Amino acid sequence: MNQLRPFHLAFPVHDIAAARRFYADILGCREGRSAEHWVDFDLSGHQIVAHYDANARPVSVTNAVDGDAVPVPHFGLVLTMADWKALAERLRGAGIDFVIEPHIRFAGQAGEQATMFFYDPSGNALEFKAFADDAMLFATDDAGAK
After folding, report:
1. What PROSITE patterns has UniProt attached to this entry (predicted)?
2. Read out DSSP for the chain?
């Protein structure tokens, strides 16, 4: 499984119109196929699908990661650092409230990364991150030890 292929993720939303505005207008996702109760979005070549669920409500579970209360579940992308910075500014300009403000996590450690968390209008948590060196994506503290 070395060749990267697009992933598919279906998730609940309680307002299809709000999901369309958020994913298309804020995140810049191109809309694909849709019907009355679902809509496909192109998230950097990956297929994410918002499915209507009148009872969809956010889950309020968090796990501690490097001093932050990380919402679980969540999804997102690993961006280039330049794209991550541009997205952070675009989100700030759109008035998005961050659950975890854009910052550097694991500073000076294996896996150092820029990260930010925020919710979509239905309460789905998203994380977008970036690495100065993509080789650090799966790095561990003992990566150099043999």
Report:
1. VOC
2. --S----EEEEEES-HHHHHIIIIIIT-PEEEEEETTEEEEEETTEEEEEEE-TT-----EEEEETTEEEEESEEEEEE-HHHHHHHHHHHHHTTPPEEEEEEEESTTSTT-EEEEEEE-TT--EEEEEE-SSGGGTT--TTTT--
Q: What is the pLDDT of residues 59-102, one digit of tens each?
A: 779 999 999 999 999 999 999 999 999 999 999 999 999 999 99
Give the pLDDT of residue 56.
83
For 58-146, CATH gives 3.10.180.10
What span, in angstroms and rounded, lies between the C-alpha atoms of 61 and 134? Answer: 28
The fold of 1-54 is: 2,3-Dihydroxybiphenyl 1,2-Dioxygenase; domain 1 (3.10.180)
Separation of alpha carbons 56 and 90, rounded Å:
27
Question: pLDDT over 90 for what percent of the chain?
Answer: 81
